[in-house]
Model the fold of this input.
Amino acid sequence: MIATIPPVLAQRMRAMSAEVVREVVAEVQAAVPAYRPDPDPERDPTLVVVRNVDAAIMFCLQNPEGADQVRWEQVFREAGRLEFAQGRTMDALQSAVRVGARAAWRRIRVVAGELGVPTETLLVLADRIFAYVDELCAVAIAGYSEAQATAGGARERRRKQLLKMLMADPPVSPHAVRDLAETTDWPLPAEVVAVALEPTDHDGAALGAEALADLDSSTPCLVVAEWTDALAAALPGRRIAVGPSVPVERAAHSLAVARRALTLVQRGVLPAEPVLRCADHLPALVLLADEYLLTQIVRQTLAPFDDLTPKQRGRLTATLLAWLETRGGINEIANRLAVHPQTVRYRMHQLEELLGERLEDPSERLTLEIALRGSILLAQNEDA
Done:
């Protein structure tokens, strides 16, 4: 690999190896904060990196033709994996290798000068040593990336497992959930919101670590501590229903509500908002939680209107709902319905004939309002 290197230079540098390592360790620790000294010298992360750099440079000097290159690539690939396992960044690794190489080169240059090595030889030596160190640094980064990808895949599997735990019925032990959450880079919040999504081809890669997500199934969903606009931006081209905020152990209930809401949006019953927040539509969701029961309430409660024409029924039910909502203010009802107050009085007289004492009973009034609102929602469902 490196020609015309005086053997005596390699011999001198090998004899000084321990001293050079100490100098390089000190320089790396001063220049790269991630490489602070370890109380156990044999486990000092700087010492591991520097020993590898120093040994590789010695190999460079003693093996000009690059023999055993594969071995050193294996060493540095494993060093990269170790750096990831110990929680340091790729930037820190690259900085440590290059700072170490520069520090070692300064000592080589001094020794070469003492031995009278020609300047031209030193220039060639410098170019080739740093090119070699760059190659090994790239190999270390590849090892780091491999370890990162492996860990990322394992973490992603654990996150999906955690999501399944949160959605389990019956619920999984809180201790099991907490223990798994600690391994997934997802701080377990006190409350969460579950989000139901329409399936698309978009992968949602920009969601980030804040979301536990299953975007691959036919019923995609995610769980987050709090819904944000940034999450919506990371999920373009989807209808989204955000469930109510619930204690983390009730996450499955939040998702059930969100999925029900998404179905109602798709059917045209709830508004087709880009992001539908269930908390803004809870009355409708409660009424439509069991459409069969709601239909029975509507039929039973509004049976007195059955003999009317559709037009009469529409006018009187609209007036009744306005009366229930305004608690009897004739003028307010008239303004809401855009009719004359006398028209309201006439319709109220008809309602009294149809419903009698039910208008005076608070429980009956509540049932009437539920039935009237339910009939509107069911009609929207039929139209859809």
